[in-house]
Amino acid sequence: MSRIAITGISAITPIGDGLEAFSAGLRDGVDGVDEIRGFDASRHRVQRAAEVDWQPPAGSSYSRATELALEVSAQALASAGLDERFRDESRGTVLLASNQGGMAADCPEYRRTTHPYRSGGVSRDLGIRMLDGAPAATLDLLMARCPGAHLGINLTTACSAGLHALGIAYETLLARDTDFALVTGVEVLTEPALAGFAVLRALTPGEGPRPFSEDRDGTLLGEGAAALVVEPLAKARARGAPVLAEICGYGSSTDAYHMTRPLTEGPEQAMRQALAGVGADAVDWIKAHGTATPANDLAETTAIHKVFGDHARRLPVTSMKSQIGHSLGASGVVEAVGTILAMRGGFVPPTLRLDRRDPALDLDVVHGGARDFPSRYVLLNAFGFGGNNASITLAAANGC
Amino acid sequence: MSDVSKDFSPQQLSPDQRIVITGLGAVSPYGVGVEPLVAALRAGESAIRPIEDFDLGDCRCTVGARIPHVDYATFDSSSSFRRAPRASRFAIMATDEALRASTDGELPWNPERVGVCLGTYRGMSEVSEKIWTKMIEREPRFVPALLFQETVTNAVASAISIRWGLKGTNYAISAGNASGYQGLYLAAQTLRSGRCEAMIAGTFDLFTEANHHDMDDLGMLSDSNASRPFDRRRDGFVMGEGTVVAVLETLATARARGAQVLAEISGIGIGHDAYGFATTHPEGVGLAAAMEQAMERAGIEPEAIGFIAAAANSTQSFDRAEHAAIREVFGAAASTIPVSSPKALTGEAMAASDMFNLVACVAALSDAEPSVHNGSEDFDPDCDLAFNLPERSDREPLTAALANSYSYFGGSAAALVLQSCSIHDS
Q: Is the pTM of this model over 0.90?
């Protein structure tokens, strides 16, 4: 089977715009959580989130989410050295992981763009903004800017969308159906998500999320955008592209049980599939889904124990969501880039606010500072609404 | 650089790489079931009616092709079904029909290896609108929790997985307003990689009052209240809706359990105009590439296609682009291959229209008669294709049909070659 390499990455996150800042932020355990500034959250149950300090170029008619996606995608393509020269000679694929895309972020914007609140004529700019609010509009813009792109898919599978996108890129390349894939994740903070997760009692009423802590009481929404370029290792070497990591396994499964209550069998099945090639014992650490809801962290821990057996006790685990919040559909992509940065930096990022160890969650959760830890294989998890599970196994460059 | 493989034609594929349809289910503007949909497409019966269930205000377009009243209670009288969003109810009913057609009741596959993949354009906008209204008219803290969890686009695919216990890969995707065949492509990939034995794959798209008003204000809808693809007088589309679900398996799996095969998806082609925002390329380059790729993978020449289910939706530039693409790919043969756009009858049903086209092709293969293109009379000289060819007794039996999927916003494109197939085929 051919080997699949990651040759370009980029990220704009609550703890850093750009790779250097994101990597340093992860190592230093920077906390991206703050009071919500993007819109008036005073009428909401929860007023805290991890926002990205980034504004679209002045005069843009597109949504902030679309502009973020375009920015990180251009950066990732540039870092992989894929430019206009490849337009005619290659076939590219774009996989966008985003649940909300360019939809209205807050009530004033919804009123401005949508019947029955919208009034007056539709100017060209407003027309663009209205159409950008539809799903997959962001994707069309990415397609026009990605050299040779023919296949474009927007994954909208809730919180597992990001790893699904990465997994589809991996399988499409293994099937030799494309020359390279651009995998982009984007999610911005919106009022429906803030209101909805709050009424589901899924958001922490406190300072920030406390994954794997006994007193964990919910997740916290985050914003994020990141992109990866994926291509066959042989092709990357042939064109002298940088190899940052390799993908060596993908698994996806469904609980077929409940929209919001997780099971352990589904995550188990996804992890086992992703580990079919390298074996569980080879894994050095786990980038957990780790939302900090009572149910997720318990189900994920139980599943990890079932899959890894004794090895689970020697296995560092971390949740990046403690630092950057939960960016829903984008989280799989943003955290994959974070994982690659950590692997290349030789550390495991810390899980913040783990102030009370939960005896029911018997894992080596890295906390109190990053841990220096060279790694060869890392498992990444993402689980979502509807009992939707995805896992990816990454290898350090030259690791598979 | 490109070394994308070319060896996909069915002759070179082993049975575990060939993708067949073993069941179909539909809820359309003609009601519940594939049969009424097929009967209407064959008869050229329009589903477009004056819209009566919401206030049209000062909309210029006042018609649409709505799914009529459905008797849910005889299908499932449980309160959880009754409370589910319209999209989930329709998709469940279509899946039920498709599974019955494919299996005679008991699921013959390992449920851990049965997946779901649904494509959509509007997703759950019907539910999201209620959330926005609640936040604007009342308070964000009064948003109903059970409603919010249905706003995620994968709520429908999850509902299907929960109802039938299907634990394999579960995808919800969008690729623009034509999202149907990208989903089938992923489903085929999941089957070919061996991760699943069967995939429930299809689309759903519904429209709301806000969707209709917004499209009308954007000038996309027909002022003359007519859906007439390729007609000289076409002036915009009419909104449609529906859901269609197919059971997909490899020929090897279908053969092993002696399943009936409705048709083989012998070629999937995917393209994109990559021409700009909310527009199509005047020459339909993405669609042309998709049609070429679909036929290349099916290993057939354009002359072998006996019917084309077109994507044209009665929009001036869009229909012209599809015409240009068909001319580019088929050359002179375009004058002899029957073409019809079901959107003349069903309106623009977004991703659901892609699957209506698939159904039209499967039906045409089953009785060798293409569906009728009705509604257009004054064909545009710039769209000189072969519509409604007179009955010809000497016509070759129809063994291959082409279904087009093309996004009028953004230019994502795809095409399927569907061929007659039996499990006894070598």
A: yes
